[in-house]
Amino acid sequence: MDTIFALATAQGKAGVSVIRISGARAWDAGLVFCSNLPSSHKTGLRNLTDLSGALIDQALVLTFEDRKSFTGEPVVEFHLHGSTAIVSRIMELLGGVEGVRPAEPGEFTRRALENGKLDLAQVEGLADLIDAETEAQRKQAVRVLAGDLGRTAEIWRSDLIRAASLLEATIDFADEDVPVDVTPEVLELLDRSQSAINKEAEGVKTAERIRTGFEVAIIGAPNIGKSTLLNAIAGRDAAITSEYAGTTRDVIEVKLDLNGLAVTILDTAGLRETEDFVEKIGIDRALQRAKAADLRVFLKSSVNEKLPITPQNGDIEILGKADLFQSQSGMTVSGKTGKGVDSLVSVISTTLFERSASAGIATRERHRQALLSSVQYLNAAKDGGTLGPDHYDLVAEDMRSAIRALNSLIGHVDVENLLDEIFSSFCLGK
């Protein structure tokens, strides 16, 4: 493959900028700028010069041998002073080296995948780690990047391969007396794998919410204090407030970090009957977003107030405008005075953390589909296994299909169509 290079740090002026070169000619490209390079896994201070010998910069140079770098190829890195002029000059000269070209988005990481340094799930974990904005997102991404999903999938694969080999041995010796009935061990392996895989699939939705963020919708009648409450939670004037009902016409979103969880608070239009065309649109959107949200906070004016939509498990019902309705019993909140706001935020955080406990290692819908596909084949294998040796050949094929589904989870098969989409989200330096 071509030797590639790119700026691995952010564009623009900085304290330090890093240019990475990867490929068979990486060391040759590095020697264009200095007379010698540090030995592998070592750094050295070098004067980088152009072809005429004029000094460009004094930089730290780091080298990696083949199979010992992030990409699995020979790698040279220039740690430069973060001047845009220095970076531009080095990049310009690298572009003129024969057999060396600029990297495409995500190409370094793609080479790490192709060279066996990462599996596909780890690649996705790396992308999530770069995008992580909260502590929960960071922890989850680190687990995937560290290979936890691949190691777990390997345990399932090993059990299924063992079960398949037992069946295939029985098929191979079908004309002979096999002293041991393998059916009990095979069914035990299938049961154990199916249960574990199914549990992991059930946790994907929650894990995906940790990755992308939970949504909490504040809903209620007009002028009950939803926008004022949103502003109090956000600590700024995110939504317009007034004494006139129907002020909020669209869904207002505020992104927050609630004790490490990424949460988007939604302020929705007041729910009521109206002849105003624009307000009707806002109310329809409010209902759609509220139903789709992970958690709903119902702001009410009285304990017995009828709710506009049916609450789901864990939803919060609370009395609004606590500064005006002092005599009301139950949980109350006032965005205007701040009364009960901290308590409400605490309840929201606790509820979402309890849901987060069910999250597994798999974090994406692609993972869930692969897991469910494997479970489907295991169901078929178990059904066939109870029918006796005459059906073992079909059972073995179902098990091989289940193994292939797990292989696709970590990128061993059937993922080529996914790669362009995945790596297009990476920056050039990755």
Taking the sheet with the most strands, its summary is: 6 strands, mixed
Q: CATH class of the largest domain, please?
A: Alpha Beta
> How many angstroms separate the termini?
17 Å
CATH superfamily (homologous) name of the largest domain = P-loop containing nucleotide triphosphate hydrolases
The proportion of strand residues reads 15-25%
**Record field, number of beta strands:** 11
CA-based gyration radius: 29 Å
Low-confidence stretches: 239-249
Order of helices and strands: EEHEEEHEHHHHHHEHEEHEEHHHH
CATH topology of the largest domain: Rossmann fold
In percent, how helical is the residue content?
A: 40-55%
Keywords, please?
Rossmann fold; 3 domains; Four Helix Bundle (Hemerythrin (Met), subunit A); alpha/beta; single chain; 430 residues; six-stranded mixed beta sheet; Gyrase A, domain 2
Could you characterize what this model shows?
- The chain is α/β, with parallel strands linked by helices and 430 residues long.
- It has 3 domains: 3-114, Probable tRNA modification gtpase trme, domain 1 (Gyrase A, domain 2); 125-203 and 363-411, Up-down Bundle (Four Helix Bundle (Hemerythrin (Met), subunit A)); 210-356, P-loop containing nucleotide triphosphate hydrolases (Rossmann fold).
- 44% of the residues lie in helices and 16% in strands.
- It is built from 14 helices and 11 strands.
- Strand 1 (3-7) and strand 2 form a beta hairpin.
- Helix 5 (135-145) packs across helix 8.
- It is flat, with a radius of gyration of 29 Å.
